[in-house]
Write a structure and sequence with these properties.
Distance between the termini: 110 Å
Bound molecules: calcium ion
CATH architecture: Sandwich
Number of strands: 13
Oligomer: single chain
Strand content: 15-25%
Length: about 260
């Protein structure tokens, strides 16, 4: 074999071997959207119940950095810390339209340093339903270890910074972990992210251990950049009580006049 052919052959073999090794799991890895995609029409407008876990420095504890459009860098984030959580809120709710309805942006600098979180949604801010989720990472990955995205399903943090992991509210109709019938899938005002501690103590819907980089310190756990909305619903604007009072007064007035005439 000529040297040049040999080099091409070796390069091709390397690419095939490594691409096979890179995506070895059962799940698709195209469940993301770029932060600049025109399909994103709105972003989270508020937050509540930020409960940072351990091993997170105060400089990463600014929830306002998860508001508005995704920045796609490492720093414009709120860090959840080990086992921490936050609820993001939306002036206009997320609705169950065609395909994916919202996207969660984390700040990973690579396609394999994946810090994960459970995703839970709510209509009323009290009753939350967690998306069924699956993780087939078979062993601990260490503080700087790699996670294969194709082993993950419906977990936030599956994709690197600038690429939001997509979630489809329609999938909640097939949820096995939690019954989603308590939700109005066309009026999701709250999305809660719960950091997964990757030391072997957290589980997916099937009971598999979910491993992710552990231990990490300083900005341990999931780092939220933003949540983008692809399918907005109609915000229910409550009719003020004074309106009904005035209307019933008017009806009474008309009725009285008619009776007199
Ligand atoms: Ca949908
Ligand atoms: Ca982190
Ligand atoms: Ca941000």
């Amino acid at each position: 074999m000529k040297k040049s052919y040999y080099l091409i052959f070796m390069a091709a073999a390397w690419i095939i071997c490594n691409s096979t090794a890179a995506w070895a799991g059962p799940f698709a890895v195209d469940d993301y959207i770029d932060k600049n995609d025109s399909g994103i029409v709105a972003w989270a407008t508020g937050w509540e119940n930020y409960l940072p876990g351990t091993h997170v420095d105060t400089q990463w504890q600014t929830p306002d950095k998860a508001l508005g459009a995704a920045v796609g860098g490492s720093f414009d984030i709120v860090c959840l810390g080990r086992g921490g959580s936050i609820t993001m809120t939306f002036d206009t709710p997320v609705a169950n339209g065609d395909g994916a309805d919202f996207a969660v942006f984390e700040n990973s600098f690579s396609a394999s340093f994946l810090e994960l979180a459970y995703v839970e949604v709510s209509t009323n801010g009290v009753d939350f339903v967690r998306f069924d989720n699956y993780s087939y990472t078979s062993s601990p990955v260490g503080g700087f270890g790699s996670v294969d995205a194709s082993n993950l399903y419906q977990l936030a943090g599956k994709h690197q910074q600038g690429l939001g992991t997509l979630f489809d509210l329609d999938m909640l109709q097939y949820n096995t972990g939690q019954d989603a019938s308590i939700l109005d899938l066309n009026a999701i005002y709250y999305i809660r992210l719960v950091d997964i501690v990757g030391d072997g103590t957290a589980f997916d819907t099937a009971g598999n251990i979910i491993y992710d980089p552990y231990p990490t310190t300083g900005s341990a756990g999931f780092d939220l950049d933003a949540i983008g909305v692809l399918n907005p619903g109609t915000s229910a604007v409550p009719v003020p009580g004074t309106f009904w009072l005035m209307l019933s007064g008017y009806v009474l007035l008309v009725k009285t006049r008619r009776e007199k005439s």
